[in-house]
Amino acid sequence: NAGVTQTPKFRVLKTGQSMTLLCAQDMNHEYMYWYRQDPGMGLRLIHYSVGEGTTAKGEVPDGYNVSRLKKQNFLLGLESAAPSQTSVYFCASSYTRLEAFFGQGTRLTVV
Amino acid sequence: AQSVTQLGSHVSVSEGALVLLRCNYSSSVPPYLFWYVQYPNQGLQLLLKYTTGATLVKGIKGFEAEFKKSETSFHLTKPSAHMSDAAEYFCAVSGEAAGNKLTFGGGTRVLVKP
């Protein structure tokens, strides 16, 4: 049972490059989330989705875009990476507004 | 907007001592409340949750938390700390009052001293 899988696990980008982080869940969950985790700041919500084809902005959406074309996948895109986007990114999914299941994280460094 | 405050970014406890981590939320409507644990280089794992009903909630690994509406609090406790409890702990809220978004506090890192 894979749960929530994030790809890639590590990445180094140069400033201005673009990339897409993939989140896949096999639990048929409606809700999916993207968070970033920075020291001392907890987890901050970037974007989320309440179902296939829907997305919404979270707390820190600037510089990111998302898509949920399939229920099981939630993609996070960085169009032009900046050093301020160096962080650990977590994807999560949930069946309702209750407990969420988290992936193992993607450690992104922008140089 | 819903917010979650965790008092103390770092807590140090001796092995065998009580673990107490504080969480307060801001909402006039009780949200759903959660505690998660994160071990180094790992994702978050749910310890326990409160939705409705009994205000004392028991979770995994010997942890429990009590929802106190009058104090808008959801503090996490464990009677006797173990070395394996060293981790970062996050309080979170969800539900309609939180705009259906899972919102986290800043986290509390627990150090367990032998």
Short recap of the structure:
The complex is a heterodimer of chains A (111) and B (114). Chain A has 111 residues and is mainly β.
Q: Cα distance, first to last residue of chain A?
A: 36 Å
Task: Specify the biggest β-sheet of chain B.
Answer: 6 strands, mixed
Question: What's the average pLDDT of chain B?
Answer: 90
> What is the structural class of chain A?
mainly beta
The H/E string of chain B reads: EEEEEEEEEEE
Annotation field: number of helices of chain A: 0
Description:
- The complex is a heterodimer of chains A (about 110) and B (about 110).
- By secondary structure, chain A is mostly beta strands.
- Chain A has strands spanning about 5, 10-15, 20-25, 30-35, 45-50, 55, 65, 75-80, 85-95, 100, 105-110.
- In chain A, the strands form two sheets. In chain A, strands 2, 4, 5, 6, 9, 10 and 11 form a seven-stranded mixed sheet that branches.
- In chain A, strand 7 (about 65) and strand 8 form a beta hairpin.
- Chain A is globular, with a radius of gyration of 13 Å.
- Chain B has strands at about 5, 10-15, 20-25, 30-40, 45-50, 55-60, 65-70, 75-80, 85-95, 105, 110-114.
- In chain B, a hairpin with an 8-residue loop joins strand 9 and strand 10.
- The mean pLDDT of chain B is about 90.
- In chain B, strands 2, 4, 5, 9, 10 and 11 form a six-stranded mixed sheet that branches. A five-stranded antiparallel sheet of chain B has the order 1-3-8-7-6, with no helix packed on it.
- Chain B has about 110 residues and is mostly beta strands.
- Chain B is built from no helices and eleven strands.
Give a topology summary.
The complex is a heterodimer of chains A (111) and B (114).
Chain A: E1 4-7, E2 10-13, E3 19-25, E4 31-37, E5 43-49, E6 56-57, E7 64-67, E8 73-78, E9 87-94, E10 101-102, E11 106-110
Parallel strand pairs in A: 2-11
Antiparallel strand pairs in A: 1-3, 3-8, 4-5, 4-9, 5-6, 7-8, 9-10, 9-11
Chain B: E1 3-7, E2 10-14, E3 19-26, E4 32-38, E5 44-50, E6 56-58, E7 64-68, E8 73-78, E9 87-94, E10 103-104, E11 108-113
Parallel strand pairs in B: 2-11
Antiparallel strand pairs in B: 1-3, 3-8, 4-5, 4-9, 6-7, 7-8, 9-10, 9-11
